[in-house]
Design a protein that fits this description.
six-stranded mixed beta sheet, alpha/beta, six-stranded parallel beta sheet, 527 residues
């Protein structure tokens, strides 16, 4: 085994992501988000009164009827174990699947059932966005998160896996979702970002400097319903291993966006998954690649010096050799220890690397997103100032990330599907389909991508017994498609019906809603 401390992980992608997005997390309303770095003690003082968790800036609505009428979906092909199989019907009652009727068998039709013709259509479990945020960027853009939540449902996403948000906002959104399952996906909560002091993202982070702080914090967060405990880029092994241990002791999931904590160490300590493809890639690059300096360290540098450093790092990183023992050993460790990887390719294509390209700025999905949010993204991109001279190198860099994603799959590493919405040009709901397309383009077969978006993502929120599969007893979260996504992954957008907790949803058409023919052509799996 190689020396885990020999290679510096603090290279270009991770720190560029931190540097360009730091301003997006800066408090804009001191009375709302405060100005001090959260500690375990202050983080646990979340406001949980009814007034505190009520949706802000949204007209209160009466709760949705809790017991939906039964549904009978006749004749649809049902997705299971990576393939579609014929069925006579899928029957739901009281919000759960009660029968998956094989061909030729009689259908038990409950009294008062709504019947849906699924003939020639394709039925999947409700999609799960495995990397999302509900407290990031929305306040700065002046967009209440409740306004955005229906866009997840209209795209077939019935569950969100939070991956680092403030507890008070998550409690508010969770309460809203439970009261209005016809307007919002369910939210599975995450801890704030565990980080060093001071943290990179003060508004959504929790600075922990002593392992003894970890047990009471994890215990308290678990009582509130937190399922994912997320280790962030500044956290080292001393505290990171304690977080993993305590999360597992409470039956929770431990994940990480790695930079200081080496993945081989995290894997040995029992990490369940890593977030973002850079949490793998940054540890595969040659050690001679220059280190990208943090924002404070670049303050004394001229613009030309910063651009020169960025170009040099890109030039070296695109040479990364995935056949080097440094890469093969790490990838094998992920596969051997069943540690999942959540690539979130869309946030690299649309923001971190290629925010200045036509495929990002002119994507039809932006026309479906609130203008206030897109305008705010434009303002962030303006200040980020991507240099046209490095665009070709950045395209090659993104191609390397896609190559690694395909290699991970072929090497037996289980993948998750997440978007990192609402980071710039990652439109909530719609970007999920872009992520599916990018993963297929990377060489992951459509069947494996759909399994990751359903079964694997359900496992990452500890809800395998409730979600991710169409089977009796599971929650009735379903997506009915007009075309087979195994033939063309873009057919994931061809949504005929969405069912959330047994409720057949309806969506008013948006004025800017594009036809599926308007969606850019997307490639299929290679080979």
């Amino acid at each position: 085994m190689t020396d885990r401390t020999a290679h510096r992980p603090g290279v270009f992608i991770a720190t560029l992501a931190i540097a360009t997005c730091l301003a997006a997390f800066a408090p804009t309303n001191r009375a709302e988000v405060g100005t001090t770095t959260p500690t375990p003690e202050t983080a646990l003082q979340s406001k949980t009164s009814p007034a505190a968790i009520a949706p802000s800036h949204v007209t209160p609505l009466p709760p949705t009827r809790q017991v939906p009428p039964p549904l009978v979906i006749r004749g649809a092909a049902v997705f299971r174990d990576g393939a579609f199989s014929p069925s006579t019907a899928v029957v739901t009652e009281n919000g759960r699947i009660v029968a998956v009727v094989p061909p030729g068998e009689p259908i038990p039709v409950p009294a008062g059932a709504i019947e849906i013709d699924g003939t020639g259509r394709f039925l999947l479990p409700g999609f799960i966005d495995g990397h999302s945020h509900v407290s990031h960027l929305f306040p700065q853009a002046g967009v209440p998160v409740e306004e955005i939540l229906p866009d997840y449902l209209r795209n077939g996403i019935t569950t969100l896996r939070a991956t680092g948000d403030t507890i008070d906002v998550q409690l508010r959104v969770r309460a809203y979702s439970e009261a209005h399952p016809d307007l919002a996906p369910r939210l599975v909560m995450a801890s704030p970002l565990f980080d060093k002091s001071p943290p990179y993202h003060a508004g959504v982070s929790l600075a922990i400097t002593d392992p003894e702080q970890v047990p009471p914090f994890v215990a308290s967060m678990s009582e509130l319903g937190v399922q994912t405990f997320k280790i962030y880029v500044g956290m080292d092994r001393r505290i990171g291993s304690a977080i993993i241990h305590e999360a597992h002791r409470h039956g929770r999931w431990a994940s990480a966006h790695l930079r200081k904590y080496h993945p081989l160490e995290a894997i040995e300590d029992g990490i369940d998954s890593v977030e973002h493809i850079e949490s793998v890639f940054n540890f595969l690059t040659p050690p001679e690649v220059p280190e990208w300096l943090l924002r404070d360290e670049r303050m004394h540098m001229s613009v030309m010096a910063v651009e020169s450093l960025r170009r040099k790092i890109l030039q070296e990183q695109v040479k990364t050799d995935y056949s080097h023992p440094r890469a093969t050993e790490l990838i094998a460790a992920f596969a051997r220890n069943h540690v999942m990887v959540n690539p979130t390719l869309i946030v690299y294509r649309s923001w971190m690397l290629l925010s200045d390209t036509p495929e990002t700025r002119e994507h039809p999905d932006l026309q479906r997103t609130p203008r206030r949010l897109v305008d705010y993204w434009d303002s962030l991109a303006h200040h980020a100032g991507a240099s046209p001279e490095t665009q070709a190198l950045r395209r090659r860099q993104f191609a390397k990330l896609q190559e690694l994603t395909g290699l991970l799959h072929r090497s037996g590493v289980e993948l998750l599907v997440g978007t990192d919405a609402p980071f710039p040009y990652v439109p909530p709901g719609y970007s999920f389909h872009q992520e599916l397309e990018l993963m297929v383009e990377s060489g992951v077969p459509p069947a494996a991508v759909l399994m990751a978006a359903t079964r694997n993502n359900a496992r990452a929120i500890n809800l395998s017994s409730e979600l991710g599969e169409i089977a009796p007893g599971r929650l009735a979260d379903l997506v009915l498609l007009d075309a087979n996504p195994l033939d063309d992954i873009r057919h994931s957008r061809r949504i005929a019906a969405v069912v959330r907790s047994g409720i057949l949803l309806t969506f008013p058409a948006k004025p800017s809603e594009a036809r599926s023919a308007d969606v850019p052509a997307g490639p299929q799996a290679k080979g």
